[in-house]
Amino acid sequence: MSIVNIDVTLRDGGYRNGFNFPLDYALTHARLSVESGFDWVEIAYRKGSLQPTPNLGLTGRGDDEFIAAVAREVGANHVAMILHPKNITDHDLPAMYAAGARLVRIILPSKGYERGLEYIRQARDIGFRVGVNFARISQWEGRDVVEVATAATDAGAEFVYLADSNGSLSPVDTTDLTTLTKSVTGGPVGLHAHNNLGLALSNAISAVAAGATWMDSSIQGMGKGPGNLIAEQWLVHLDRTDPDAAARLHLGPALELADLLLATVPEGTPSLPLPDLVLGRYDLPVEHRKDLLGGNHREGITTARTLANVR
């Protein structure tokens, strides 16, 4: 089974450092990522992760000049972007394509996703490979997965990503969601795993066993909170278990990239913030981290249980 691998370090890792990756580092990262065997490097949000914010760092804005610089470094067919439909206008997708991006992922909510369908159609017509991310999938009802996956596929989405934004899924959950989504769309399914509970690798293995063929990971796991599926572990797993992947992967450059990240970006050092462990346990989004700070851990657990409506 051939897995399509996306390196999300520059994008998701931006939650750790305000998206302030130096341009020289970002270009070197992209080059080593492609040399390692990643199919795509997702280099930035377009106009912000949650809302348009002009003072965000390089990989939170996704400006045309940055896209063009990465495309010159690694070739357009390795350059991916991600966006929230509410943050862009009809001019953004054509500009991104002209600058050199060739894959775009559009984040869809479980309700009010119609505007995103319009951008799926526009991206497809421009020439992008286009997919969708279902954010906070652990909180979606099964009927919403069916409805939105069907609508996105009908609009032209090539693949559907299940994004475990809260880091709350178990391998069983991941298997069930992958199986459900694949049965609805008949097309490729991907997983974007967070590691709040230390289950990102197990969830990735379960997703692939259930038929997923696209996978996100990040170098040293650098991403929001405790981070994402750790790319080095994932690539080693594929190198050991998947002959097709092993023929395309190169672990040496991946490990060089891990050393470079740790030497260049202090926020890239792996960590497990304890509030994020609690968020994962109670399936709470990162916006509630502030509610768990300032008191002792016992008070934090009580607060989390209240927010999650656990008695």
Explain what this protein looks like in three dimensions:
This protein is of the alpha/beta class and 311 residues long. Helices cover 47% and strands 13% of the residues. It is built from 15 helices and 8 strands. Helix 7 links the parallel strand 4 (103-108) and strand 5 (129-134). Helix 3 (23-36) crosses helix 5, helix 8 crosses helix 9 (171-185) and helix 11 runs antiparallel to helix 13.
Mean pLDDT across every amino acid position: 95
Structural class: alpha/beta
Helix percentage: 40-55%
User: Can you tell me the overall shape?
Assistant: globular
Biggest sheet statistics: 8 strands, parallel, barrel
The total beta strand count reads 8
Give the CA-CA distance, first to last residue.
44 Å
DSSP strand (E) fraction?
Answer: 5-15%
| H and E string | EHHHEHHEHEHEHEHEHEHHHHH
Q: Please give the order of strands in the largest beta sheet.
A: 1-2-3-4-5-6-7-8
Which runs of at least 5 residues are low in confidence (pLDDT < 50)? none
Number of continuous helical runs: 15
- The radius of gyration over CA amounts to 18 Å
